[in-house]
Specification:
- The chain is an alpha+beta fold.
- It folds into two domains: 6-76; 79-219, no CATH class.
- The chain has helices at 13-21, 24-37, 52-74, 78-104, 114-136, 187-194; strands spanning 147-149, 153-155, 162-164, 168-170, 173-177, 201-205, 215-219.
- The strands form two sheets. Strands 1-4-5-6-7 form a five-stranded mixed beta sheet, with helices on both faces. A two-stranded antiparallel ribbon has the order 2-3.
Length: 225
């Protein structure tokens, strides 16, 4: 029986500990957990990495494989939510640096404000990386399934049909990649919660460079509509 311990679902803890605690035994544990869910699983690992960076990459890969196995075998989405948020936090911060450099070199649209131009760059860059991640781990995305990359979330409660477009969705959680800090009072966030999809939470992912609260969750209040 495989169970996801709370400490294994921590978003920041494992990443900080990997450089000192990563061992072949830990990798073997992850593989055993995956095989408990998918007995025929065989990871494409040629040799155990010798560098700290290589070991971190291997553990991140296997954590994602484990999350994908939980989804395929049991339909459980929480492990996948955690791994995707960890992935997006890192990639968003990296894309921010590239976006700032591109803006300073005059490579981004001059018709937008600096924040808008860099924000658009980050959105496009990170969404493409997320698509590749899902493809690499055999996870299907669609416009109507529980795992989505962008896509309209409609609100049919009013006289006119309206919609919002989150950057990603995993089950009952929407994910918004943004430079600015957002709260339940933000129009966009209220729109997410008012959608027919009726999410339980919205996770805000921001570059680490713009503030300490780079990742946080907004829980849906009792009633929004």
């Amino acid at each position: 029986m495989v169970a996801m311990a709370d400490h294994l679902l921590d978003i920041s803890g494992p990443a900080r500990q990997l450089t000192t605690q990563l061992t072949e035994e830990h990798v073997s544990l992850l593989i055993r957990q995956i095989k408990a869910l998918e007995p025929n699983y065989g990871p494409a690992i040629l040799a155990f990495p010798t560098t700290p960076a290589g070991q971190v990459n291997l553990v991140n890969y296997l954590r994602m494989e484990r999350a994908a196995a939980f989804y395929r075998a049991r339909g459980e989405l929480r492990p996948l939510q955690v791994e995707i948020i960890r992935f997006l936090q890192k990639r968003t911060s990296e894309a921010y640096d590239r976006g700032v450099k591109s803006y300073n070199l005059g490579r981004l649209s001059t018709n937008l404000s600096r924040e808008e131009a860099i924000g658009n760059f980050i959105d496009k860059d990170v969404r493409q990386q997320l698509r590749e991640l899902y493809n690499n781990h055999g996870i299907e995305t669609s416009k109507i399934g529980p795992i989505r990359i962008i896509g309209r979330e409609y609100d049919s409660s009013g006289n006119d049909l309206t919609y919002r477009i989150p950057d990603a969705r995993i089950g009952d959680t929407m994910i918004d990649i943004t430079l600015s800090r957002k709260t339940i009072s933000s129009r966009q966030i209220r729109g997410f919660f008012n959608s027919d999809m009726n999410p339980k939470s919205v996770v805000i992912v921001r570059p680490r460079q713009v503030g300490n609260d780079s990742v946080y969750m907004i829980i849906k209040p009792g009633k929004q509509k």
